[in-house]
Amino acid sequence: MTVPVLSFPNGIHPPGEKDRTSKMEIKKISPKPGSIMVFPVSQHIGAPCEPLVEAGERVLIGQKIGDSPKPVSAPIHSSVSGTVKEIKDALTPKGNLCKSVFIENDGLEEGIKPRDQAPDSAIPAREETLRRIREAGVVGLGGAGFPTHIKLNPPPGKKIDTIIVNAAECEPYLTTDHRVMLEDSDRLVTGLEVILSLFPEAQGIIGIETNKPDAIEKMSSAIKGKSRIKVVGLVPKYPQGSEKQLMYACTKREVPSGGLPADIGCLVDNVDTVVAIARAVMLERPLIRRIVTLTGGCIARAGNYEVRLGMKISELIDAIGGFSEEPYKIISGGPMMGTSMYDLDVPIIKTSSAILCFTEKEGKLPPERPCLRCGKCVDHCPMHLMPLELNYHAINHDEDQFIKNSGLDCLECGSCSFTCPAKRHLAQSIRAMRKDLMSRGKRA
Amino acid sequence: MDNKRLVVTSTPHTRSTETVESIMRHVLIALAPAAVMSVYYFGLRALLLIVLTVASCVAFELGFEKIAGKPVTILDGSAVVTGVLLAFNLPASSPFWMPVVGSLFAIVVAKMLFGGLGQNFINPALAGRAFLMAAYTPKMAGSWTAPVRNPFSIDAVASSTPLILMKEEGFVPAAQDILNAFVGNTAGCIGETCAIALILGGIYLLWKKVITWHIPFAYIATVYALSTILGRYGIMTGDGLFEILSGGVMLGAIFMATDYTTSPVTDTGKLVMGIGCGTLTVLIRNYGGYPEGVSYSILILNLFVPLLDKYLRPRVFGKDLPKKGEAAK
Q1: For the domain with range B20-309, which CATH number is right: 1.10.287, 2.40.50, 1.10.3470, 1.10.3430?
Q2: What is the CA A219 to chain-centroid distance, rounded?
Q3: Could you report the predicted ipTM of this complex, rounded to two decimals?
């Protein structure tokens, strides 16, 4: 199968580490009866939901348990049938406290919809499509968690001509997008067709890194006869799956600093999100599960698992065979941008793409040393920044210089820190400065 | 499950295997062919000079750090690299106290007083060489010896370098001279004469991604083009090939001008650095008081590095887009 192979300038080539799980079929993991499921009311960018249930109430699978009247928000649904135990603050995988609905799973698996419902044969009209996506609580599942019904409804005047399915999966270790493309290719195409129905003049592009030739082949045959969709190869390189870099690779257009993809006529959704859109629109199924890669040197049985949202990570790890040795570091997400966790008593949420359990050898970071000025961070920065200087400005709290040198344009992708021979905490210092500035309303 | 021992850090959670030590190791490997050839051409005396300079550089760095109460950094290998490069810049006839004095200036004055590795503003090895040139001119620039081509010899026969002959006696290189310069069979500093060994080292550094092509290419190409055009005996009379193979151009362009700390971090900055070094080298050789200008041209360009880094920056992704209207179509 020959497809064009596209890329962006700079970036890095971290070891892929995907071989252990890329051949493993997605396995369903069900929470045990009696286990406590935790649903934070904010699993997305935007307004948190208000709980719609009270302690003691019985809920069914797919029942909405949190929603918000604000436009930029997405409802939360129960992924089990059972009883609401309490509503209180709980730790999330991101390390913050969030009001959460605790539900005890009764194991009866009672849903609000019949299990064997036939899919709609036709895509509904625009308003209904967007309504179903919103009602299903679909958000960007790649990690950002932006409500999808907002993203798919750009302000009038923004003409969208390219819809990109982000199947780069450039983070090391992660293999969920790869498996979904192999195992659920038709639904992925359906999801893309749903999006294309909202943008009648747009072209659909599925961008896949060429280290997944089987996925390229599978998707290429799944789109046969669909003239509005094409599959393109992407050079395996990090951060190929970063929205700005991916759009550049596919269209050679640059999002203006501080702008949105819609400014250059593009929309990007990742594989899992597009599948969730298909389920939401064609089956009216809410988002209550996601695919998670569990791997790393401490995991006894690494693999790709379909997990109910709300399941505690500790329970999930036990359910798949536990640790083979005591973990040194546990990361929610990929090794480049994921969050390391100090407590496993947190739930899988909409944006949990992977759980990596690292041995000391895999996860120990070398000590920081003085900068050599080798310039490798400059050579590899996908935004063409000068991380070594931003690092100085951040350490010295020199806000003016930091902003002047485009520090706010940083993606926080970590390419600079990865490549630094002196092992400087470049991305960390830049992130801290950005967070500080952005919390005070400064934008790129 | 005992969760209390989990380590939490900021991203990214994985790092490349490249370290300061691995880079210095690659540089030393790249310098090895030229070191072997220096011993082949200039005898055991060359080996003694290299060992002595490296030992002095390491000892001065260690001594400075002990006295100043700083963490000891001699194991990072940078002092060893400085030592080898300084030794390569010495004539074979150097008395054995010269490397010690040169190392003192290179390590203590040029490097450690400014804060150590990564903080110096001029190349330490070249600073050491410049100091020796200024303080002991006759010993550095007036006592060249011909290659003895006997590793066990410690004798030396006085000889002039081709650059001196061209400058002072109107020497016109023949094909045999070009070949001699290529293989290193000519008078000069012990590490600079064998162009082929230095080029091999350069290819190794490019392969290991320790350096990029910008500075060496721009430097050598500029010397080639400019010395051909601004010939020593009139416009277009120059022998560009002989000029790039003679003197310190290869050593300077591949190993000295590419020193991380004292070269620009951006690609355009590196190109300008190479072009600037090449231009100054040719101007000094053809019109200056010295027969050779590599070390001074690199030292001068070292001073421009902060300026180059300030103004020759890459265009930030998404900023200053070429055609603003077109992007949104």
Answers
A1: 1.10.3430
A2: 20
A3: 0.90
